[in-house]
Design brief:
6 strands, six-stranded mixed beta sheet
Length: 152
């Protein structure tokens, strides 16, 4: 599956307000729910926040990959959310996070879920990729960056 098949223009938000970790995760799930991607908002929210309490999904360089297996979705769902101000997320480099790759999937999607996590992790090692995502003005530009870097 190509990243541009999973990260859709409607699941890319370039101006979500910064807040606490838990409030931001709840806002992301709420946004996905309002767009019809979530089957049970309460379950999905609880699962993504519970996953975060086990170990931070902050990976460094201002990026986090909040993810969870949850019965709150019926199929694999992914979104990219960007805040204008960084959020304290417990990343290993202690930098605040402003780029959030969110992946939610039912337990049956475990194999694809892991593949998507691995692909994103590899791309995040590229500083140009991260910088272009931060400069992208809107969802269309973000999708263009994903296409350029993710489909090489």
């Amino acid at each position: 599956m190509r990243l541009t098949e999973l990260f859709l223009p409607q699941t890319v938000v370039t101006g979500i307000p910064a807040s606490s970790k838990e409030a931001l995760l709840a806002a992301i799930v709420r946004d996905l729910d309002e767009k019809g991607f979530i089957a049970d908002r309460a379950v999905a929210t609880n699962d993504v926040i519970a996953r975060e309490t086990v170990m931070s999904t902050g990976v460094g360089n201002g990026v986090a990959i909040p993810h969870a297996y949850t019965d709150g979705v019926q199929r694999l769902v992914a979104g990219l959310y960007r805040t204008d101000a960084g959020v304290s997320f417990g990343a290993p480099d202690d930098l605040d996070v402003s780029l959030f790759f969110v992946i939610l999937g039912p337990r049956a999607s475990r194999r694809e879920h892991i593949r998507v996590l691995a692909r994103i992790s590899r791309l995040l090692g590229n500083a140009d990729f991260r910088d272009e995502l931060r400069r992208a003005e809107d969802a269309g530009a973000v999708i263009g960056v994903l296409r350029r870097f993710g489909e090489r």
